Amino acid sequence: MIMAERDKKELTRTVGDKARRKLKAQRGKDRSVWSGLGMFGLIGWSIAVPTLAGAGAGIWLDGKYPQSFSWTLSLLILGLFSGCLLAWQWVQKEHKDINEEDE
């Protein structure tokens, strides 16, 4: 009875180890030059889209509601800041995922 319980634990540990190694090997195959370039593109777009959206909204606001300051410049800077923040969060998440896979 005691031997059977010990065998179950050993089998569970062995199967778990093999499954972790298999998952790690599969994930390693996905990381290629193309996936790195894709991430570069994704980060670029996550900065460019909010920046351009801010500039577009600023141009529209400058035409509709002129002020002593430039809506375009203000919203462009706000869009750039938010885009950089989004990109930074994305990189941190990917970095965390990669480190968890390595452990």
Structural features, described:
With 103 residues, this protein is an all-alpha fold. It folds into 2 domains: 1-30; 33-102. Helices cover 90% and strands 0% of the residues. The protein has helices at 2-30, 33-64, 71-102. Helix 2 (33-64) runs antiparallel to helix 3. The protein is rod-shaped and about 80 Å long. The model has no long low-confidence stretch (mean pLDDT 82).
Total separate domains: 2
- Poorly predicted runs: none
- Indicate the overall shape: rod-shaped
In DSSP terms (H or I, runs of 4 or more residues), the helix count works out at 3
Describe the largest sheet: none
Number of strands: 0
Rounded average pLDDT: 82
Give the % helix. over 70%
Q: What structural class results from the helix and strand content?
A: mainly alpha
* N-end to C-end Cα span: 34 Å
- Order of secondary-structure elements: HHH
Gyration radius (Cα, Å) is: 25 Å
Strand content: under 5%
Annotate the secondary structure layout.
Blueprint lengths: L1 H29 L2 H32 L6 H32 L1
Helix pairs in contact: 2-3
Features:
2 domains; mainly alpha; rod-shaped; single chain; 90% helix; 103 residues
